[in-house]
Amino acid sequence: MPAEPARNDLSIYDTAAGHWWSDDVRWVRTLRNMVPGRLSWFDRHIDWRDRAVLDLGCAGGFMAEALAERGAHVTGIDPAARAIAAARAHAEARGHDIAYDIGVGEALPYADAGFDAVVCVDVLEHVADLTRVLAEVARVLRPGGLFLFDTINRNPLARLATVTVAEDILRLLPRGTHDPALFIKPAELRRGLRDAGLVAGRFTGLGPRGINRRGDLTFGRLPLTAILYMGVARKPGGVAGG
Ligand SMILES: C[S@@+](CC[C@H](N)C(=O)[O-])C[C@H]1O[C@@H](n2cnc3c(N)ncnc32)[C@H](O)[C@@H]1O
């Protein structure tokens, strides 16, 4: 029997930093391939132009650059220092004016109410303290600002799909990428958002929708929230985010 891998191994993001934009690592390409499907749903909630947006857990900057291309003023933050270095280098080469910082969602180094939106994709199921992260998201959002996220549901099907199949059998992800104990049921996330002072809106599913010419999965909105799901929440007050 192979040894059980360490769960929620955050070192993989630094290890992969040099491959982030080179397209030569399939699981990194998968993260990139998820961006259009997420944005096709996020775009319904906000006009990004001239908005101050925080990409929380940005890694090498896939979402941050897509948001900058939509006209947002983007800040990205992630604890993986080498991933942040890769993000900075790529943004500079592409002429994107994106501010990148090294740090964690539990202690954001930003002033209160400084962002129109916080985007957090494929991150909440990795953080050490979800309650503190949600409190920090609420703190840095301006009244009326939006929190847009996706994460992984916690149930046997989600574990089967994301750990047993994606990590252990198909090797679409490095073994140890996820700790299923950190997965989050939608009802728990709704409670957490409410406790942080945010008003949860719609949640919807996210999942594979096809295969591209390279043989990689493409992603989009699905009605089923049992495995991956996206959602939106608003900080009360002010003018709505869109
Ligand atoms: C699966 S990657 C997603 C990266 C990026 N959002 C994307 O979709 O391309 C998860 C990211 O969460 C980051 N992360 C883990 N714990 C975090 C924390 N406490 N605060 C902020 N980011 C964290 C990791 O360093 C990693 O870059």
TrEMBL record:
Indicate whether Transferase appears among the record's keywords.
yes
What keywords does the record list, in alphabetical order? Methyltransferase, S-adenosyl-L-methionine, Transferase, Ubiquinone biosynthesis
Q: Which Gene3D superfamilies does the record match to this protein? A: Vaccinia Virus protein VP39
Q: Which InterPro entries match?
A: Methyltransf_11 (IPR013216), SAM-dependent_MTases_sf (IPR029063), UbiG_MeTrfase (IPR010233)
Q: Which residues form the Methyltransferase type domain?
A: 54-149
Q: What is this protein called?
A: 3-demethylubiquinone-9 3-O-methyltransferase
The record, for NCBIfam families, names:
UbiG (TIGR01983)
Q: Which Pfam families match?
A: Methyltransf_11
The organism named in the record is Rhodobaculum claviforme
Single annotated GO MF:
polyprenyldihydroxybenzoate methyltransferase activity
Q: Does the keyword Transferase apply?
A: yes
In Gene Ontology terms, what is a biological process of this protein? methylation
